[in-house]
Amino acid sequence: MIDHPDRVERLLDRLQAVLPLPTRMTPELVATLAKDHTGLSPACAIVSVNYAGDEGGVVCRLDCQTERNTAIYASITHLRFDPRLPIARHIIVYQKHRVKALRRQPR
User: Fold this and answer.
1) 107 residues of the chain, pLDDT tens digit each
2) Rounded CA gap, 79 and 90, in Å?
3) Using an 8 Å Cβ cutoff, are 61 and 44 in contact?
4) Angle in degrees, CA 21, 64, 56, rounded to 5
5) Rounded CA gap, 72 and 84, in Å?
6) Helix/strand/coil (H, E, C) string of the chain?
7) Phi, psi (rounded to 5 degrees) for 57
8) Residue 58 contacts by C-beta under 8 Å, 6 or more apart in sequence?
9) Which of 65, 20, 68 has the alpha carbon at shortest distance from 43?
10) Which of 14, 20, 30, 62 has a CA that sits 20 to 30 A from residue 43's CA?
11) CA distance from start to end of the chain
12) Cα–Cα distance between 84 and 79 in angstroms, integer?
């Protein structure tokens, strides 16, 4: 098991309470999305969150400025947050735990 269900539930509740939440996509995510979305800005906002189980973790629907009118979903591990946000510490703890747990998984 990668994620702790009770911790994820608490994080989702905290995230729901502060939506929409400003964020920035990682350069890697922007490069991946740029293939289908021209003129994509890394700055966006999270408008909804869901849990996709151990396979996907916390998944966020993003409100981004794009030329195409399509929804963009990304794992919260591919997003960066202003450390001054009150919820940032909780998100960063989740991100670090998840990345470390994924690295420990057998290939």
Assistant:
1) 789 999 999 999 999 999 999 999 999 999 999 888 887 889 999 999 999 998 999 999 999 877 777 789 999 999 999 999 999 999 999 999 999 998 988 87
2) 14
3) no
4) 70
5) 25
6) CCCCHHHHHHHHHHHHHHCCEEEEECHHHHHHHHCCCCCCCCEEEEEEEEECHHHHCEEEEEECCCCCCCCEEEEHHHEECCCCCCCHHHHHHHHHHHHHHHHHCCC
7) 70, -155
8) 8, 11, 12, 15, 49, 50, 51, 52, 75, 76, 94
9) 65
10) 14
11) 15
12) 15
Which amino acid is present at 65?
Q
Q: How far apart are CA 32 and CA 46, in angstroms?
A: 18
- Among 8, 9, 15, smallest CA distance to 101 is for 8
Q: Omega into 20 within 30° of 0, i.e. cis?
A: yes
Q: Kindly give, in sequence order, each residue whose CB lies less than 8 Å from that of residue 53, ignoring residues fewer than 6 positions away.
A: none
Between strands 43-51 and 21-25, the pairing is antiparallel
